[in-house]
Specification:
single chain; alpha/beta; seven-stranded mixed β-sheet; 13% strand
């Protein structure tokens, strides 16, 4: 969506605010709306630019609680969330390329956000509003407003299992790893196929756990948000199992770890990016591809890394992400 889309949204919002008895005024690129003790600041932001400073006298009435809503027609960079003009003001950045909403600073108080979204999703005379047609309610995702429960649960499980391994002889002890479900080809052939699942919750050493935990913390919330919780867990578990299967077929080494599942999340995000051309053009998907290539290259150069599990999980995650993520 180009800049014109942001202007149309502002025009529509002004109409809706006026109909709902908000007092409207203007200051440079800002639309200022007041009603009782609520104050809303609305503007658009071109990626990489700065917002126009607000008048100092605007905040003279301490009874008015101001919040800013910034529409980003071209998407936004992470640095765009640090706007000097909004220092001390709760701001919401609405990425019109992806439908994601970023609070800055992070907050769970979304009263004014809900008011604004209700205007954008209002139907008049049986007809959808301009923005509602372009951005259905189901596609407006508020990043950081809901906790990634499954991501945190998986991290907790990994830490708990690691603690069990440590207390029972150490996570680098081969006997302990086999006891708790590491991938061992001979045992899988003998019927212990459950190892294809359990091995993804084991980690060999604290560094292994730390790397995978950081990756899950970085990628998990985004996939859980974009795909939904059940699709997220499907992608994660299926990719982990597929990674174990690939490792089973192409290497005889004992292996463990969530790397296959992590690469599955990367694959799902790449697939999602490919299905959303604006997101791909923004560099999001291409950056993920670079990360994947670098990690696979590291696996080739560094002994002991199971690249077959990485590739199996990556392939599975990409396919499931392409099918299930809208």
């Amino acid at each position: 969506m180009k800049n014109k889309g942001g202007v149309l949204i502002l025009q529509y919002l002004i109409q809706r605010l006026q109909m709902d008895n908000w007092e409207i005024s203007y200051d440079a690129q800002w639309v200022i709306a007041r009603r009782e003790q609520k104050g809303i600041l609305i503007s658009t932001l071109i990626k990489g630019n700065f917002l126009h400073p607000l008048r100092e006298d605007l905040f003279g009435d301490s009874k008015i609680q101001w919040e800013a809503f910034v529409f980003c027609p071209e998407g936004l960079f992470s640095n765009d969330l640090k706007q000097p003009a909004l220092r001390g003001v709760q701001a919401w950045y609405i990425d019109l390329q992806t439908g994601l909403i970023f609070p800055a600073p992070a907050t769970t108080n979304r009263e004014n956000l809900n008011i604004l979204l209700s205007y954008l999703q209002t139907r008049e005379s049986g007809q959808s509003s301009t923005l509602a047609m372009a951005y259905p309610k189901s596609s407006m995702r508020q990043r950081g407003l809901t906790k990634p429960i499954l991501t945190y649960s998986l991290m907790a499980i990994n830490f708990f299992v690691f603690l069990l391994l440590t207390l029972d002889g150490g996570s680098t002890n081969t006997y302990v790893l086999v006891k708790y479900g590491a991938k061992v080809n001979e045992l899988i052939r003998a019927g212990e196929v459950w190892r294809l699942l359990t091995s993804m919750f084991l980690h060999i050493g604290i560094i292994h756990l730390a790397f995978n935990s950081f990756a899950l913390y970085a990628l998990g919330p985004l996939v859980e948000e974009l795909a939904g919780r059940w699709r997220f867990i499907l992608i994660y578990i299926s990719s982990g199992i597929m990674g174990s299967l690939a490792s089973f077929y192409f290497t005889n080494a004992i292996s463990a770890g969530a790397s296959g599942a992590i690469f599955g999340l990367l694959g799902a995000l790449v697939a999602y990016s490919r299905k959303n051309p604006a997101l791909w053009k923004s560099g999001f998907g291409k950056n993920l591809v670079v990360i994947i290539v670098l990690n696979l290259s590291l696996g080739i150069m560094q002994p002991g890394i199971d690249n077959f599990a990485h590739l199996g999980g990556l392939f599975c995650g990409f396919i499931l992400g392409f099918i299930s993520m809208k």
